[in-house]
Amino acid sequence: MLETGIGRAHNLHLSTLDQFTLPGDVAASRRYFVPDLIDPPIEVAPDGTIAVPPGPGIGVSPVPQRLQDATVHQERFRQ
């Protein structure tokens, strides 16, 4: 459950599917990571709802510098 905003965005989209009856836990993207890896952030509205990110794909984009800052180990493979 300690996912970044990338996983949260996926969960929000899945939660809106008609036949989806067991959504994952959804919360603001900054709940566990400040700053989170994404932009724009996923926020909880005053009425307790969360809007599904409207952009292309999952609706949010990873911020390259934040990804780099959070990276502990990286490997590159040649083709």
Fold and architecture overview:
- The chain has a two-stranded antiparallel sheet.
- By secondary structure, the protein is mostly helical.
- The protein has helices at 5-15, 64-70; strands spanning 38-39, 61-62.
- The chain has two helices and two strands; from the N terminus they run αββα.
- The protein is globular, with a radius of gyration of 14 Å.
List the helices and strands and how they pair.
Layout: H1 5-15, E1 38-39, E2 61-62, H2 64-70
Antiparallel strand pairs: 1-2
Short précis:
The chain is mainly α.
How is the biggest beta sheet arranged?
2 strands, antiparallel
Beta-strand share of residues:
5-15%
Q: How much is the radius of gyration in Å?
A: 14 Å
- List the secondary-structure elements in sequence, H or E: HEEH
**Approximate shape:** globular
Which features would summarize this protein structure in a list?
mainly alpha; single chain; two-stranded antiparallel ribbon; 79 residues; globular
